[in-house]
Write a structure and sequence with these properties.
The protein has 175 residues and is mainly alpha-helical. The protein has helices at residues 18-25, 28-39, 44-53, 58-63, 79-126, 129-143, 146-149; strands spanning 4-7, 12-15. Strands 1-2 form a two-stranded antiparallel sheet.
Length: 175
């Protein structure tokens, strides 16, 4: 029987030889199926741009159906469809801008962490880390970025120390 070639775009298989494969890959049906597949992944703004540049399809407007279907070079979108697509593009743009705004605080957290590490390394090289640690903790509490404090349900190891520091219980039974 021989090897068979399966085309994912067209969902068909045929005997695999150079002539059959070349004939299939250059065929209109394959090109349409491949275009339809990649059109699924286009973003809304590209679709909106393409549809706005096309003229409306007269046959589709009159009869509600077009012989060319999705391959028609004219637009099959109504004014309402275009308006909905514009809203969708605007919503996606707003969502991207909001996500970019959320990325910016992460940078400030990284900056805060690097400054904090530099301060700690500078204090440890001077030698008297114990004396300056208390003053640094009070400064560090006020400098903690608000986005870190606003995260709900942090584990205790990630929570900042309470004002006045942690309460230490001394066990007098062993002494």
């Amino acid at each position: 029987m021989g090897r068979r070639y399966y085309c994912d775009y067209c969902d068909r298989s045929f005997q695999d030889n150079m002539h059959n494969r070349k004939k299939h890959l250059n065929g209109v049906q394959h090109h349409r199926a491949k275009k339809a597949w990649f059109d699924h992944f286009r973003d809304s703004s590209a679709i909106l741009y393409d549809e706005q540049t096309k003229k409306p399809c007269r046959k589709f407007l009159q009869k509600g159906i077009c012989d060319f279907g999705p391959n028609c070079r004219f637009s099959h979108m109504s004014e309402d469809d275009l308006l909905n697509l514009k809203r969708q593009v605007e919503d996606e743009r707003q969502l991207r801008e909001d996500s970019e705004d959320r990325v910016m605080p992460e940078r400030s957290i990284e900056e805060w962490l690097s400054r904090r590490e530099k301060k700690r390394s500078a204090l440890s090289t001077k030698g008297d880390l114990k004396n300056k640690e208390d003053s640094e903790e009070s400064q560090a509490e006020s400098e903690i970025p608000q986005q870190l404090l606003s995260i709900p349900d942090l584990p205790p190891s990630l929570l900042p120390p309470p004002p006045g520091g942690w309460k230490v219980k001394v066990n007098t039974e062993w002494g």
